[in-house]
From TrEMBL:
Organism: Alectura lathami (Australian brush turkey)
Stored CDD domains: PH_ELMO1_CED-12
Gene responsible for this protein: Elmo3
Keywords: Apoptosis, Phagocytosis, SH3-binding
Official protein name in the record: ELMO3 protein
GO molecular function, one term: SH3 domain binding
Length: 679
């Protein structure tokens, strides 16, 4: 456009993030993008650098507002930082006594400039950090300033150990909890973000102390009541922070999970003995003193065997496997102390069963603890994007142990439902794993609800679900397979029609029912091989398949008008009651034929024959087959045909939509011209 001083101008996107067009990003311009002519980034940076130093409050405010907006652009940010613009921002924060709008725009601009990673967070001055901390710790402070201050601190924490310690020291957990309790959702979110950043940057010991302190302050109950069950829907960011909090909390069990039992540890041996005593104390207490050491040892071994330890002479061996290590022992002890009745019932109930049918408590507990660790991802690092937290986790102290108490009783229940023996141990635990994961996927809001649902999902329900899923797996419900199914239907219905007509050609023996309802005479009816005439006639007892010539009566198929079923038949309209009448109703059908509309009345010997005959007669009349047998036969034939057709597609996933048809070639001159070759 031959503008004078062209270097003072630049193109900029008019919509969305108003990024400057540079040599590096010009290739990304899409058709239809609207660009506008603007002052070049260096000119704009120069102007705003002067503007934010202005003594005129309005000019300063506008410049800071524009700076906060433009700083999202990397080209502008670089120009502004090159002019030592950050120093000016530090000056406004450190020296200025501005609050409200000016301060909010300054902090926003600072955040945007730091996003580009041109400057390290570690270069921040002590007075600047002090100011930011003071904004967070002040009670009467603009909410937008507090949000931005919390964001700045959240970004500082992971960048260096020194900054982490400083923030942790100056912004107390209590202060963050105060911010969590405000009604402003954004402020609540930023406070949670800083809390999570502190937890993730802490060492294991610091994290344990912080979590213990949060537990004392009842943060779980607060989150459960005021965040998860608040009137506002939960945002993705908050869901992620709750997932991290849950993950950090569950990972506190990792140390015990990865520690094997030490058979020489007095404390661990006492925990193990407490399990035995809680189950059998009334039996073993009294006579224990009179027994020799050998006798006492054999009694203990017997009791440990009843408790379900595989190595009953040295049960500590069972707990050497890590994971689940000592966590399994902790869970068993928690169960025995907090639900003593359920614990005693479990152990005693299985002690009285036959050896092979008893459900081993200790072995089940060890395996169940491992399953729960896997399902809840104990010991795994937090995902950076996941949002999958369990609402019930925040409604319960000692969540892992309480969940174990519910699930170990579920193991016993499922064991009984499956009538399991020791050989079925792995199979039972597999079903239990499925029961737990399926119930957790429903996101129950409390452990009580989890308990109700997981107990309702019994073994027979699991079998039904597996059956349904197997059908899905066989892909009989995939869209292309359903289309194939529809295409196969006419062919298979024709097959059923042929079978019905063949059955009519073979014929059936019927009983005549007189007006007195006495089944006295027999008669036989069959269709001629050319499907044009129905032959029927009386037969003697004991004759099963009379020749077609012996059946004297005939009805041409062309004369047949209609088929009547059940109550519509003339021979069922005679008044009568009782069970026999109901049976006759279900098996009765009539053919209306000839101009005079005579009726030939049938009562089929069985429901199966009724279905075959009514279907066959409907085929002859050119109507649809309506019996329930048709649907059953069609389903069986379709299922078999589909399985045969899909045999070659084993382990190949069928796409829902057909692949696109390729475009026609640019020219069709690819046929070899033989005439030239001959010349």
């Amino acid at each position: 456009w031959s503008l004078p001083n062209a270097e003072r101008y630049a193109l900029q996107y008019a919509d969305g993030r108003q990024t400057y067009i540079t040599e590096s990003n010009r290739g990304e311009i899409k058709n239809g993008s609207i660009l506008r002519l603007a002052t070049s980034p260096d000119q704009e940076a120069e102007r705003l650098y002067s503007g934010i130093q202005s003594n005129n409050v309005d000019v300063k405010t506008d410049s800071l507002k524009k700076l906060a907006s433009l700083s999202q652009d990397v080209t502008f940010a670089q120009e502004f930082i090159n002019r030592n613009g950050l120093k000016q921002i530090f000056y406004i924060v450190e020296e200025g006594n501005d609050t409200g709008e000016i301060l909010a725009h300054t902090l926003k601009a600072f955040m945007e400039l730091m996003e580009h990673d041109f400057v390290s967070w570690e270069t921040l001055s002590a007075p600047f950090i002090e100011k930011i901390v003071s904004y967070v710790n002040m009670n009467a402070m603009d909410a937008s300033v507090q949000q931005l201050s919390l964001s700045i601190l959240e970004n500082m924490v992971p960048s260096s150990r020194l900054l982490f310690e400083r923030v942790k020291k100056e912004v107390t957990v209590d202060r963050l909890l105060t911010h969590l309790q405000v009604t402003n959702a954004q402020l609540q979110l930023k406070a949670m973000a800083l809390l999570i950043a502190l937890l993730l940057a802490a060492t294991d010991a610091e994290r344990r102390d912080m979590m213990e302190y949060l537990r004392e302050k009842n943060i779980r109950q607060f989150i459960h009541k005021n965040i998860i069950h608040s009137s506002e829907p939960l945002g993705d960011e908050m869901a992620h922070y709750l997932y991290v909090l849950q993950s950090v909390s569950l990972n506190l069990h990792e140390c015990r999970m990865r520690t094997s039992m030490d058979p020489y540890s007095q404390e661990q041996r006492e925990l193990l003995q407490s399990l035995r005593q809680a189950a059998f104390e009334s039996e073993s207490e009294a006579p224990a003193g009179n027994f020799s050491t050998e006798r006492r040892r054999s009694l203990c071994a017997k009791e440990f065997r009843k408790l379900g330890f595989m190595n009953n002479s040295n049960p500590a061996e069972d707990l050497r496997r890590a994971p689940p290590g000592l966590l399994a022992l902790d869970n068993m002890v928690y169960f025995s102390r907090h639900t003593p009745n359920a614990y005693s019932r479990f152990v005693l109930e299985n002690s009285s069963r036959e050896d092979k049918h008893e459900c081993p408590f200790a072995r089940s507990s060890i395996q169940l603890t491992l399953i729960l660790c896997e399902i809840l991802h104990v010991g795994e690092p937090c995902s950076e994007t996941a949002q999958a937290f369990y609402p019930m986790f925040f409604g319960q102290d000692h969540f892992f142990e309480e969940l174990f108490c519910i699930c170990i009783q579920l193991v016993n229940k499922t064991w009984k439902e499956m009538r399991a023996t020791q050989e079925d141990f792995d199979k039972v635990l597999q079903v239990v794993r499925e029961q737990i994961t399926r119930t957790l996927s429903l996101k129950p809001t409390s452990l009580e609800l989890f308990k109700t649902r997981v107990n309702a999902l019994n073994y027979s329900e699991i079998l039904k679900l597996r059956q349904t899923e197997r059908l899905h797996q066989e892909e009989t419900l995939a869209v292309p397979v359903l289309e194939l199914r529809e295409r196969l239907k006419p062919e298979l219905l024709e097959l059923i029609r042929q079978q019905r007509l063949l059955r009519l050609c073979e014929g059936t023996l019927f009983r005549k029912i007189s007006s007195r309802r006495r089944q006295d005479k027999l008669w036989y009816c069959r269709l001629s091989p050319n499907h044009k005439v129905l032959h029927y006639g009386d037969v003697e007892e004991g004759v099963h398949s009379p020749p077609i010539e012996s059946l004297t009566e005939k009805i041409p198929v062309a004369d047949m008008k209609a088929l009547l079923i059940g109550k519509e038949c003339p021979h069922t309209k005679e008044k009568s009651s009782g069970k026999q009448n109901k049976d006759v109703l279900e098996l009765a059908f009539s053919i209306v034929y000839d101009v005079e509309e005579y009726c030939l009345n049938f009562v089929a010997p069985t429901r199966y024959e009724f279905c075959l005959w009514t279907d066959g007669l409907n085929v002859l009349l050119g109507k649809e087959m309506t019996s329930e047998r048709t649907q059953t036969d069609l389903d069986v034939l379709l299922s078999m045909e589909l399985k045969l057709r899909l045999l070659d597609l084993e382990n190949i996933s069928i796409p829902d939509t057909p692949p696109p048809v390729p475009k026609p070639p640019s020219n069709l001159n690819f046929c070899y011209d033989f005439s030239h070759a001959e010349q």
